[in-house]
Sequence to fold (584 residues):
Amino acid sequence: MTTQAWESGLPALPRGRKTDVAGPALSGLTGFAAFLIVAMVVVIMGNIAWFGWRTVTWEFLSAAPREGMTAGGIFPAIFGTVALVLLMVVALIPFGVGAAIYLYEYARQDAWFTRAVRFSVNNLAGVPSIVFGLFGLGFFIQFVGRGIDRGLGLDVVWGQPSLLWAALTLALLNLPVVIVTAEEALRTVPREQREAALALGATHWQTIRRVLLPQAMPGILTGAILAVSRGAGEVAPIMFTGAAYFLPYLPTSPLDQFMELGYHVFVLSTQSPDIEGTKPLLYGTVLVLLLLTFLLNLTAILLRSRMRARLAGR
Amino acid sequence: MTSASGRPVVPPRAPAPPAGPPVLATRDFHLYYGPVHALKGVSLEVLERSVTAVIGPSGCGKSTLLRTFNRMNDLIPGVRTEGQILFGSIDILDRGTDVVELRRRVGMVFQRPNPFPKSIFENVAFGLRMLGLKNRGELEARIEQSLRRAALWEEVKDRLDRSALQLSGGQQQRMCIARCLAIEPEVILMDEPASALDPTATARIEELILDLKAAYTIVIVTHNMQQAARISDRTAFMLDGKLVEVDDTTALFTNPRQKLTEEYITGRFG
Fold:
């Protein structure tokens, strides 16, 4: 085409820049939002650490409570919280990841059943924690538990609050987050990985187990981290299903009741006759709860980092 | 390289071995992606221990055809087929076909190397482990053999436990070939195996294919006509889902029977 043919006949486009106001403004606003989050965490943690650190002595961490909770330590609550969270994870992860694998790998996406499952998961996510607690009481303890007792001819063994039912209730609470993050994690595994495995004569299940699942592990762990944080802190689901304010012994089986840090804080702050006196105890307990959650998460985060590094070939 | 007439030069080569029964054959094969008619009545034979190249412009259906040979198109929802595909004497499209077993006998190398994020050892061992092989000694022996056959052993023998992702693109592709060879397939399907690689790596892959021909039947899809001329015994030209012409490579590039073929190989389109 000739030079003339290239002339478009339309007016020239505006060149040069108007002063960019949106750029710096957006950068400032988003930076401020991030700062606020950090500030909130610092303020909350700072406040708790400031008022609570004096209470957290070795005795506090290792001894049982004495004199009506005003002296001694909170070891049984620490023990109970750890036991509860571990049991919850054991129940939750296989169940949640299994459901995610089903939804992603086996289910026909347009089948009514698949849609019903997704709908249920979404709704489960919106249920208030107290409702989970009541459900745990009504279903796990009074229906399943009593049913087992009747079936085995026992008096009241399974049909009462215990670590088992509380852990299962918490597992149910965290199911949506695990299913969603696990499915997302599976989705991020590139299609070529699946094709490579199938082309080498792997069966569908072998492909899932040897190729997809290992590569989805970091994402699945993220779901577990979120579940652990929520599980260690929630009180409503465990109030009727197994937590107790004071127990003279540590739980030795999943059928025992247990003390728990979050529940301990709840009772101390609402039912103690001496609010001012128990304040240091409250702060100390909350600090311990936060540190414990942090520690559990840190382990999972480190594990996840190592996995990611290995998957990236380092 | 191209000759004065603009067509690829076919290097002189030893006469082809006597043709046996075809290893793979399609009979009037049609494939639909939903409403799209992607393969139209393709009838093609692939002879034992030969290299068959499938050439044609983008979108002509050559990769689709390749992927039907190991039923990889099953992974795409909404795919419908008509006609037959024979592997030996079995119709692989038959409902009762053991697809897993088929994929062990008909292996595939992909356009972009797709190593697993595992060690080189575990990558090459993958197919063997899926078969149930556990004995470490036997695995090591087979892995070494496969890596040697893929011309990669010398480069990686001291670092089999390191991640395969640390290899260069060309090395990764040769490792993928080794991985495929480990389960001793009869046919190797290659979907533009060198298109993501630099010229040096490409040359090594082509050399490798010429070596592999002695023991395996190879079908290679390539958009590079010169490559097809260099390494294949027979070449199939596809256009718009149809198989336009298939012939001995030298014949196809020097004296094609179809006008469309002549136009394609002299670069008039595509």
